[in-house]
Design a protein that fits this description.
GO terms for molecular function: ATP binding. It is found in: Membrane. Its main location: membrane. The chain has no helices and 24 strands. It is elongated, with a radius of gyration of 25 Å. Strands 2, 4, 5, 8, 11, 13 and 16 form a 7-stranded antiparallel beta sheet that branches. Strands 3, 6, 7, 9, 10 and 12 form a 6-stranded antiparallel beta sheet that branches. A hairpin with a 3-residue loop joins strand 4 and strand 5. 0% of the residues lie in helices and 45% in strands. By secondary structure, the protein is mostly beta strands. It starts with 7 loop residues before the first strand and ends with a strand. The protein has 2 domains: 163 residues, Jelly Rolls (Sandwich); 74 residues, Immunoglobulin-like. The N terminus is likely disordered.
Length: 252
């Protein structure tokens, strides 16, 4: 009979729910002020707005994604890559930021209209790179937001009130601890918790019918998607069986 154990950390993995703007449908809605044009698509799946010259009233431009299936995520991480132009004197309603909103739901339809349906405020972009000239590739800024998931679906909405900006990419993802099988012990794929302080113990199981455990098989999945497994987590081959690693770990 051979005593088996393992400890340490398993490498994390990330599930990409939305990568760039190429695999998402974006809907445009809003009321622009005089002299303003609102959101528009350009290039390869990019969106922009430049209503910094609005004269009579503050623009209210919305750009909304389609339904994002968050799968089994507990927390999703959002990264927005964007550029923004500096406001100039005389631009009454000009802004150098935008606001990000979210709407969680169980339904794929009807698609919510942010002009009618209240979206939750998530973050206000605070760019550090704001050039007073046409933007260049190196002028990008990043907005990073993490939110707790309460429903199985998510819509994001970008709210502009008079900026001159471009959305270059939007990435939505979540971390998870991948299924791990090592020497007769298995822990199933587990979505990462919102934070390490809210992490729960995950129960494992012996993978071979001829094996048994003498201790509780539990591990912790961290918010970064790493398995934390104590070295006393182990399975043993039952009497009359021996451990073999070929062609796969088993008791024979």
């Amino acid at each position: 009979m051979i005593l088996l154990c393992f400890c340490g950390v398993a490498l994390s993995e990330t599930d990409i729910l939305l990568d760039g703007l190429r695999n998402a449908y974006f809907s445009i809605s809003g009321r622009a002020g005089y002299g303003a044009g609102g959101w528009f698509g350009y290039g390869k799946n990019r969106y922009a707005v430049c209503d910094s010259f609005a004269r009579t009233k503050e623009p209210t431009n919305w750009l909304r994604t389609d339904f994002i299936d968050v799968k089994d995520a507990i927390r999703v991480d959002i990264i927005v890559n964007y550029t923004v132009r500096k406001c100039r004197p005389g631009q009454t309603y000009c802004k150098e930021y935008f606001k990000l909103y979210g709407y969680q739901t169980l339904k794929t339809s009807p698609r919510p209209n942010p002009l009618v349906t209240p979206f939750d405020f998530l973050a206000k972009a605070k760019p550090t790179n704001v050039p007073d000239r046409p933007t260049r590739p190196g002028d990008f800024n990043l907005l990073k937001v993490s939110i707790k998931i309460k429903r199985k679906g998510l819509y994001l909405a970008f709210y502009d009130q008079g900026s001159c900006l471009s959305l270059l990419s939007v990435r939505v993802s979540f971390n998870y601890c991948p299924e791990i099988q090592k020497r007769l012990v298995t822990f199933a794929r587990t979505a990462s918790p919102f934070s390490d302080s809210s992490a729960d113990q995950v129960e494992g199981r012996c993978t071979d019918q001829q094996s048994r455990n003498t201790t509780v098989l539990t591990a912790t999945c961290t918010s970064q998607g790493n398995w934390m497994i104590n070295d006393n987590v182990r399975c043993l081959c039952q009497p009359g069986y021996r451990y073999s690693s070929y062609p796969k770990p088993r008791c024979c």
